[in-house]
Amino acid sequence: MAVGLHDARVATAGPARAAALLRATRLGEDWRWLSASVALLLALTALPYLVASVAGRQDLVRVGTFWFFRDFSQYLAAMHDAASSSSWLLHDRFSAEPHRAILMYVPYVALGKLAGLLGSDPLTLYYPFEVLARVALALALYGFVATFLDSARERRLAYLLAAFTLGLGGWVLPARLLLGAAGRPDLLARLPDGVNVYLEMNSFGVFLSAPHLMLGLALTLVIPCLYLRAATGHAWWPLALATLTLGLVHPFNLPVVVFVLGVDALWRLARGREWRALLALVPAGLLAAPVLAYNAWLFSVDPFWSGTYSKQNLMPSPSPLTAWVDFGLVMLAAPFGLWLWRPWSLPRRRLLALWIVLTFAWMYAPVLFQRRLGFGLQPALSAVAAVALIAMQGWLRRQRIAPRPVNYALALLAVPTSVLVFAALLESAATNAPTNVYLWSRGEQAAADWLAAHSGADDVVLSSIETGNGLVGWIPGRVVVGHIVATLDASTKETLAKRFFAADTPAGERGALLARSGATYVFDGPRERALGPADLRTLASLEPLYARDGVTIYRVRRGG
Is residue 56 part of a domain? Predict the structure, then answer.
């Protein structure tokens, strides 16, 4: 009776009121399940940190994220710079060349500003911020699937698929072994070499990545929901504000989001003379335009920034023929879900179909950062895949076929890669292998702290590329070579560093390399000695200032 009354209320309400009633009903159905799912996500993503703190390598130091952890030095440097500066603009401290300061990494700059205001270490604020970003993404993911799916079973399955699946990469190794044994090199060549853990292809990795990526995906998923609300008469400004924020947090995929919504708005106008969606989208586009223009100019025209974060930021999309391996079950099932939705008469179904088709097409745009354009595609594939998988269960029952064995088979397709990667992550948290998730040794950390206290913003440090990447997060100055994306002409400078620290480099050549680098300090630790090791004490231009726990820091003598 209650359900019937609710259905009648929805049927007699206007579009905006009906949408509000549906959202309230879905949340009422799912809030216990959603609370448990968010708690599970938080527990799983906290487990690597717990393992590292309880059973991790005591001789090593770990900071930041577990997924693509080498990028964290950029964010830590932004927080430290913002905490001690009055400006919101950042310089690239991975290169010594002069360049303009720009607006980037806004969430970390804001966090650094707050840390400076409170007089605290930015890392003290960072980790709670990381947890809040996870919760925001978890809730945004539910809001996305709840917007497009009516059935509670579909919503919950879509949520699980989006949050916990990592493609079919876990099956690649046994498949390659079988094909090799069968003598089928033609089929072997069509498979990827290993497990693809890129964040654009899965959402679980995003939960273990940096907060700005979590917030970027959360905003990407919230924006179409706000667009549908605005198209039914709700306020336009939340859509505009979310679009602007996405441009500040994760501008790479902003053109894709605006383009997809624009196509849908024009479709509404052409087919039904509906102006409301387009009028709601115009302010969002106007607010986003300056951000898009600013980033497009910087990373395509500015000599320094186009040579670092643009030219060296290579993120190719997987081949369209093997993308099903990277997306996994959700891509295999999604076409059937879209077929079941035809003719996509409901606006939200049409929008999701456009979102999938157009975002996938954008992933192959002729730009160097192709994969970034696919951000938000995997949750959409998960939504329509859930439609197909739930419908398949109904079809099996009608055919009097037990669905449970089929469900087990599908689970074996969907889950093993996630389990394999997560187990490897936990092992890495304990042992620093198979992935090196620890920054460096405690001796190197002590040396970095000393250098931070005894150097200034104008100093430049020569070290290996791995050490340089870590130093940027701690010292006030710059490095010769650090992150491969953020260092201008990173490959040439990495070669210079390797040659400088090589044991067979003549003293004269080593001195010339030092002069060419522009360094004022040289950091000689375990990674540097692994390149040679060289005896830097023979170089007259170097004055040792610090020697402890396997690390020596030299100052370059003026005129030496």
Answer: no
Instruction: Give me the DSSP letters along 397-462.
Output: HHTT--HHHHHHHHHHHHSHHHHHHHHHHHHHHHHS-SS--S-EEHHHHHHHHHHHHH--TT-EEE
| 464 and 340 assigned to the same domain | no
Q: Please give the Cα distance from 303 to 174 (Å, whole number).
A: 46
The answer for 400, left when phi > 0, alpha when psi is -120 to 50, beta otherwise, is left
| Torsion-angle region of 489 (φ positive above 0: left; ψ -120 to 50: alpha; else: beta) | left
Are 386 and 419 within one domain?
yes
Residues 398, 450, single domain; the answer is no
Give this prediction's pTM: 0.92
Residue 288 lies in a domain: yes
What's the gap between Cα 537 and its chain centre? 43
Domain shared by 466 and 344, yes or no:
no
Give the number of other CB atoms < 10 A from CB of residue 391: 17
The last residue of a domain, from among 372, 401, 428 = 428
> Which run of H or of E encompasses 545?
strand 542-548
What string of pLDDT tens digits covers the 560 residues of the chain?
A: 334 434 444 444 455 555 554 555 666 788 999 999 999 999 999 999 999 999 999 999 999 999 988 999 999 999 999 999 999 999 999 999 999 999 999 999 999 999 999 999 999 999 999 999 999 999 999 999 999 999 999 999 999 999 999 988 888 777 777 777 777 777 667 666 667 778 888 999 999 999 999 999 999 999 999 999 999 999 999 999 999 999 999 999 999 999 999 999 999 999 878 899 999 999 999 999 999 999 999 999 999 999 999 888 888 998 898 898 899 999 999 999 999 988 887 899 999 999 999 999 999 999 988 999 999 999 999 999 999 999 999 999 998 888 889 999 999 889 989 998 999 999 999 999 998 999 999 999 999 999 999 999 999 999 999 999 999 999 999 999 999 999 999 999 999 999 999 999 999 999 999 999 999 999 999 999 999 888 898 899 999 999 999 999 999 997 64
Residue 237 resides in a domain: yes
One domain, residues 402 and 533: no
- Please check whether residues 378 and 448 belong to one and the same domain: no
- The secondary structure of 300-343 as a DSSP string is HTSHHHIIIIITT---PPPPTTTHHHHHTHHHHHHHHHHHHHTT
ω before 343 within 30° of 0 (cis)? Answer: yes
Report which of 135, 141, 132, 129 is spatially closest to residue 202, judged by C-alpha positions: 141
Range of the domain at 445: 441-556
Domain boundary, last residue among 428, 460, 479: 428
Residues 249 and 186 in one domain: yes
What is the per-residue DSSP string for 358-400? HHHHHTTSSSTTGGGGGTTHHHHHHHHHHHHHHHHHHHHHHTT
Same domain for 473 and 362? no
Calpha distance 430→55 (Å, rounded)? 5
Quick check: is 83 in a domain?
Answer: no
Q: How many domains is the chain partitioned into structurally? A: 2
Query: Packing angle between helix 347-362 and helix 329-341, nearest 10 degrees?
Result: 140
Q: How many CB atoms lie within 10 A of CB 162?
A: 25
Query: Dihedrals φ, ψ of 440, to 5°?
Result: -170, -175
